[in-house]
Amino acid sequence: MILLTGATGYIGSHTWVEMLNAGYDVVGLDNLCNSSDLVLDRIRSITKIPPIFVKSDVCDEQSLRRVFQQYPIDSVVHFAALKAVGESVQKPMKYYKNNVGGIINLLNICSEFSCKNFVFSSSATVYHPENPTPYLEDMPLGPANPYGWTKMMCEQVLRDYELLDSKFKVAYLRYFNPVGAHQSGLIGENPMGVPNNLMPFIAQVAVGRRDYLSIYGGDWLTIDGTGVRDYIHVSDLAKGHVAAINYLLRDKKSLTVNLGTGQGTSVLELLKAFEIATGQVIPYRIIDRRPGDIATSYANVDAAKKMLNWYARLTIQDMCEDVWRWQKNNPNGY
Ligand SMILES: NC(=O)c1ccc[n+]([C@@H]2O[C@H](COP(=O)([O-])OP(=O)(O)OC[C@H]3O[C@@H](n4cnc5c(N)ncnc54)[C@H](O)[C@@H]3O)[C@@H](O)[C@H]2O)c1
Q1: Contacts of 84 by beta carbon, 8 Å cutoff, 6+ apart
Q2: Domains of the chain as residue ranges with CATH
Q3: What EC numbers are recorded for this enzyme (predicted)?
Q4: Is the CB of 34 under 6 A from ligand 1?
Q5: Contacts of 117 (CB under 8 A, 6+ apart)
Q6: Distance 50 CA to ligand 1 centre (A)
Q7: What does the pLDDT look like over 245-295, one tens digit per residue?
Q8: What end-to-end distance do the CA atoms of the chain give, in Å?
Q9: Is there a catalytic annotation at residue 147?
Q10: What phi and psi values does residue 276 have, to the nearest 5 degrees?
Q11: 33 CB under 6 A from ligand 1?
Q12: If you take atom 39 of ligand 1, which residue's CA is the nearest one?
């Protein structure tokens, strides 16, 4: 059985659907600090399988122990983390405590219950910003903010733990920019407060919740002066986790791979695609660059293709259409 932590969150909920569709038994766990348990009904509607859910905190070792006592968990997919880069600069201790403290607890419990397979949600933010693009897995690391450091530290904690137990295997998955929503329009990204990410911001402008999109910088050395990122459909990303679990169970080896499309898209290109998907003009203003931002980030995805036999299939237009379906059907989220 697979334990998904952070299961009701954005990527967790889409992965839960894909894991159930692939026939895996799953128990989802979340403390609901950044998600809603209304997701559970939606997962049941999509998969026709009642999801098994435990409200719990990965920082609470005793409660994790009870979950492992109750269910025969042999694999963990660990999404639970705080992820707002800006907040991590304001409150770094909160981020280290939750993200690094959480994984240490989880590994202590994995050790107690001989759980040997672990999939970790890492991020493109672990790469040093001065690396040339596309990013390759063996390029130098050097996060630019506390959130990124928590991801890099978690990777290090896992690598040290691997040395203790030769049967313990980890898939280090470095995500690029997940966007989109499930094709059903039933689950999607539901940020609390002002969105930190571009796509939910655009979608909230389109639905009338915000007046215009602010674009941070129009003078980057890119195709049109706006920042370029590697946007990946969340359902493709979710399937990458199924491929990673299959790999760990079959090959019994650890791996580190980028999960992206390998293509860069600028803010203005994404905006245009969203306008096509919605048939609306989205007002925007170009404002100052954000400190710490970079011009371009996209992945080399050869390793994921080769080792996981996985690649992203959905296009930027699919991502925009699916976000719009989700946003239109759920203008205020869940
Ligand atoms: N969304 C992105 O752009 C992105 C990019 C790279 C990596 N990641 C990583 O992917 C993972 C999932 O991200 P997401 O976008 O789905 O975020 P999310 O906030 O939607 O999901 C994370 C979930 O974890 C839960 N959570 C947080 N701390 C917890 C704790 N201590 N105990 C139990 N539950 C807890 C939250 O309630 C939330 O439901 C995170 O680890 C994030 O760092 C996300």
Answers
A1: 147, 196
A2: 2-182+231-260 (3.40.50.720)
A3: 5.1.3.2
A4: yes
A5: 74, 75, 76, 169, 245, 248, 249
A6: 22
A7: 999 999 999 999 999 999 999 999 999 999 999 999 999 999 999 887 899
A8: 28
A9: yes
A10: -65, -45
A11: yes
A12: 9
